[in-house]
Design goal:
Layout: E1 4-15, E2 18-29, E3 33-37, H1 44-51, E4 57-66, E5 69-70, H2 76-81, E6 84-87, E7 94-98, H3 99-111, H4 117-130, E8 141-142, H5 148-162, E9 166-170, H6 178-191, E10 197-202, E11 215-220, E12 223-228, H7 231-239
Parallel strand pairs: 3-10, 3-11, 6-9, 9-10
Antiparallel strand pairs: 1-2, 1-4, 4-5, 7-8, 11-12
Helix pairs in contact: 3-5, 5-6
């Protein structure tokens, strides 16, 4: 059985009439952690949105192949049920819906099975302890009054509970202090195994001080222009992106 999880072939996409992605090629195997770096406006978040079928973006060319199936036209919920997870750069606040209720509903929806309450609560407490999240957190309304770090830790908690095969983390380290970055990083390392893969999107290397990726890709002006190992992130930290531009 093939170890390939995701293959992106010549992917181009636009928002309204503006072309953002201009022929992305990327292959991801199970057990790998990939980092996509690039300056603001390069197309990083657009790529994440396209992979999860955001309605504002239109694929104009290319294919997204996930576990051997072309998934260009699948809806976000269909992709979620197939094991794809996206953490948002700016999570929404949902008054009236507790974190616990949201996670239980999400787990039921993705698995297509009724989640037993006591088993769910036990699992949730284990994951919250691991991520150093207080028990009262589960009773709070989703993202309402949360700090930037709490919102990001909440998304890692979602990922821990849903156990996706492919996790796409869009600027997960943005706005986090050092301690929160450590907790998010520990969450990723805790969940990473030979059956899943991660795409971590960032424009700086703070989170990479704690997670060692298998590959670092640089995306500039809608194209991946360089791929290397983790040392590429160190070079970018020193030199910036100008030296990579064609």
């Amino acid at each position: 059985m093939s170890n390939e999880l995701l293959k992106i072939n010549n992917l181009s996409a636009k928002v309204e009439d503006k072309e953002i992605l201009k022929g992305i090629n990327l292959e991801i195997k199970k057990g790998e952690i990939h980092v996509i770096m690039g300056p603001n406006g390069a197309g990083k978040s657009t790529l994440a949105s396209i992979l999860m079928s955001h309605p504002n973006y239109e694929i104009t060319d290319g294919e997204i192949i996930y576990q051997g199936e072309i998934i260009n036209n699948l809806s976000p919920d269909e992709k979620a049920k197939k094991g794809i997870f996206l953490s948002f750069q700016y999570p929404e606040e949902v008054p009236g819906l507790t974190v616990e209720s949201f996670l239980r509903a999400a787990k039921s929806s993705v698995s297509n099975e009724q989640v037993r309450l006591m088993e769910f609560k036990k699992n949730l407490k284990e994951k919250m302890d691991l991520l150093k999240i207080g028990e009262d957190y589960a009773k709070r309304y989703l993202n309402v009054g949360f700090s930037g770090g709490e919102k990001k830790k909440n998304e890692i908690l979602q990922m821990a509970m849903l156990e996706p095969t492919l996790s796409i983390l869009d600027e997960t380290d943005s706005g986090l202090d050092v301690d929160a970055v450590k907790i998010v990083s520990q969450g990723v390392k805790m969940l990473a195994n030979n059956s899943n893969a991660f795409i971590i999107i960032t424009h700086h290397k703070k989170i990479l001080d704690y997670i060692k990726p298998d590959f670092v890709h640089v995306l500039i002006d809608g194209k991946i222009i360089k791929t290397s190992d983790a040392s590429l992130a160190d070079e970018i930290e020193i030199k910036g992106y100008e030296w990579l531009k064609i």
